[in-house]
Design a protein that fits this description.
With 908 residues, this protein is α+β, with helices and mostly antiparallel strands. Helices cover 16% and strands 29% of the residues. Strands 3, 4, 5, 6, 7, 8 and 9 form a seven-stranded antiparallel sheet that branches. Strands 12-13-11-14-16-17-18 form a seven-stranded parallel sheet. Strands 25, 26, 37, 40 and 42 form a five-stranded antiparallel sheet that branches. The chain is globular and about 95 Å long. The relative contact order is 0.09. Mean pLDDT is 87; it is low at 1-27, 147-170, 247-252 and 636-640.
Length: 908
Amino acid sequence: MRFTLWLSVVSAGLGVFAVHGQGDPSAGNRFQFRTPHQIAYRLTGDEALSRAVAGERIEWLAARIDGNSTNRVELGSRMVLQLQAADDLKRLIEGRPLELSRVVRSNLFILQAPDALTAVREASRLAALAEVMASCPVIRRHDTQHGPYAPRSNDPFAIPFFSGASQTYDAQWPIENRDGSSIRLGLDLNVMAAWPYSFGQGVTVAVADSGLEMNHPELVARLAGAPHYNFVTQTDTNAGPLGGDNQSDPLLRHWAHGTSVAGFIAAERDNGRGMAGIAPLAQLASWMIYTTNGSLVSDERLMDMYGYAADIVDVQNHSWGAGNGLRQQDGPSLLEQLGIEDAITLGRGGRGIVMVRAVGNDREIAASGNDDRYPNSPYVIAVAAVGKGGRAAYYSEPGACLLVGAPGGGADSPQGLFTLDLVGTRGVTSIYIFSGDLNDYNFGVQGFIGTSAAAPQVSGIVALILSVNTNLTYRDVQQILALSARHWDVADPDLSTNSAGLVVSHNVGFGVPDAAHAVWLARMWSNRPPLATLTLTDNQPLAIPDSGLRVEVSGSNIPPALASMAAFPTFTPGMDEPTSELALVDIGTATSVPAVNLTNKGALILRDTTPFTTKIANAAQAGAAFAVIYNFTNAGGFNLELVANTEYSPIPTVFIGNTSGEGLKGLFETNNSALARLNLVSAEKVFSVNSTLLCEQVGVRVQTDHPVRGDLRITLRSPQGTRSVLQHFNDDTNPGPTDWTYWTTHHFLESSAGDWTVSITDQFGGAVGNNFGVSLILRGTQITDTDRDGLDDPWETNRLGSLMFGPKDDPDADGFANAREQVMDTNPQTSDLLATPDLSRWGLFGSQMMRLSWPSAPQYHYEILGGSNVNDLNVITNLPGGFPETELFVPFTPAQNGFFKVRAFQAP
């Protein structure tokens, strides 16, 4: 065992898998393929394999990636072949047991073998040829649905969630989180304020999942006439779930998943039943992608899925993945990637299918969305899950690829989210004896939990957006979501503000979208200019220094053993820049806030049974700038620990061994000249960019020969100083990254001009490797930007009269900085938001009130007047402004308040 994962005070061992040597593909059951990168699989399943070897024609053979015992796939009797020259096909398969079945591209083919074992052998044979770019069997993965149901309660649970009960509103708090008197209780998606403009009508959302319940009363109207398809049977009929949802059988539990996902998107509104979807007039297409044994259809069928009905479907929701709870890098096959690219370039008349993807639920085992090529893509909207307080859910994977977050349930409450179940007693709630409609819904401890729940809520918002502006491209939608999002968890230490003024984190991207603000942006949005891409590559070999995370000590008479010590990482933010050199103060076990003032000092802490997070928080409260925790024993060697659950700790922290810790303690007690700092010694590649793009997603392709990928931390720093963490330390013991492209959203609207720095740090000793190639991939729109501030010079001159303003400036004080005004194509010197109040009826649980709202900014105060005579209005109240809107709830009494007026005043 390399290390132990510490979640609190209890350790849980993580397995380590040996990586086999290359060997002879014809020997045993190990086969080497190209995808187009080299990858080896071992055939498993002794019975089926024995029958295949004996000559029986087996259609699918179980396999796993060589060196990893848990990544299960099935290899089929069809194979993928991509050639340098298409003319070579006839020569390569002549006389072989292969037939051409399908031409995917001019040089990419699907070949049919008589059985799976033949396909495996032929694919391995062809993969060794120089003229072959890719050769592998068609793959069927065992997936992970990103929305597990909550564990079954031991006690019966029955609360009426229907009309007239206060629990109804609480159960659907993501739509609008208020009590019966209109007081906001916390985070929501502000959907009620978007519904006056759109219910999603005219938009079709495809739910690629376990099938939708075609006769569910909440879905019948929404499913009518949509392009349903069963990719298992390859028919447009019977795209509903194949079974019930048996809580005791994991293979049967997932059949309600697709129906539950669909409920968040477009459950019927105003039908007197249990819930409403976010876009309740959108159409839903059911796409069945699961076989009867719970595995995904083949990658060939998934390729077809992405492009299916591309002239009808506007949005695809993908609340599934194929990671199987692993930290290793994996994702769509070559065929799937081609399908995704076709959907983006050809779908919706070239505007691109909008793809919404759940990031995954494996945060607790240090998984990252950037290691999963499904959410780690510039083509998709990667969605995190948040709790009621806005903090990323305990299961929601972080990643620089995240765009936004949405409620996921179960994060800061034992209950899941309210949504649809299979009809009657076939679903998740069948363990209870309910009468009537209650069996058709999930709720309470059986409510829906996971990023699977977060993604369809964003899909619903996208449907609202496209309903008011059908001309938007997939890139337009991504930017509207980013600009409409806000952070509710302001205590997240990972929050940073990029040079365009956008606040972003690795936990929830740009925050939680405000549906009303997104719809407002969509109504006035002009299409962004065509996409430009710039790629710079550095293939100069560069050694990666071993044990690069260090505690460094300077001063007089410092023992060599204490001058620079290897440290073990935590997940605390702020680890990428050297800390200041400070005195280190021993505060013991830090079980409480120390009495000593640690301002401008570091804290040295002894590990005991107290959680690491408590120790770090106590040191920070005393003013410490950073912390060094050392172990209480040297038993088992260096005995370093992976300090998990520390991503929300307020100060940078590392972990060291007992000998080093005791040495530091003695040194700083006797040497007044000693100063310590935390530092990363990294291999760095710097790319000097002269072109001026207004950035969207930025990619970094990394190629190494490092024998243990999980030892590495990889980051990207923009010319403006914004840093994206592309890979953090984890326990993936496979080599790499051999060839992986990481994507980040954190540089949206920054200028591309200047020096970009890719840093690779080896944070665990013993395994040494080299970087053989790094490519920087910049996506965005071309601008003329001589001062490199991210504002187009002609736009600045025409709109602002000079180049003296910056992207974060807000000359008209309307809450929209220049960077936003530029992409919104609005006037940065004239506010268009101050005189557009909206009045809508707001009734809840018998209460009759009106919701008066208006776009606003913190720089203003607002005077609200009302009355029955438009020429004689009285002041009702004065309110400070907020962003993006301010609201006031007033009684619904037309005789007294038939007219309202809002006046803005510059705040003092």
